[in-house]
Amino acid sequence: RLRTVTGVQTCALPIFPTASLSSADDLIQAAARRLSGVPSPQLDAELLFRGLSGLSRADLLSGRLAGRMTPQRTIVIGYWIMFAAAASGIAYHALWPPAIPWTVLPVMLYSVGLALATPSLTLCMLDLFPQNRGLAASLQMFQNSILNSLTASAVSPYVAGSGLALAATAAIGVTCGACCTGLYFVLPKKREQDHG
Prior knowledge:
Blueprint: H1 2-12, H2 15-35, H3 40-65, H4 71-95, H5 105-127, H6 133-159, H7 163-195
């Protein structure tokens, strides 16, 4: 019985964090859009610039870290950066009203953490299914799409009126992803101890 439950959890855990991370990023961007009072084209340009600059910096950093750090360490660093972005969003919105660029800067920081963690998370998930990598990648994208849709339709409307609520919800999403990732790395060790 333990073997079956552990196997199912092991298959699902590496897929969830990537979707959770993307959902938290959607919430951060929704906070910036809805609460800043800046005209939409200007805000869209600001979000695009900050998001892309964060991703490009993370790609450069990820390329430099590849081979020098284990995937686990890269994931941990990515999560710490995302937690810092979520905390800065919460701190800012707890003290001040939304404004450009302060509401959007956490998006850039968050994008750096997301871009650092996602490749290693994806590789960890694909390593579970060496014979079915295409199927595993498709299922990951399907689950990512479902979770993003549910977040946008069922969660975001309830917290969209407050920058603080959106930032806190993004932090909850990152925390859920970090917990699932931690379980993913702990479960194989526990299984080896139980059978070894």
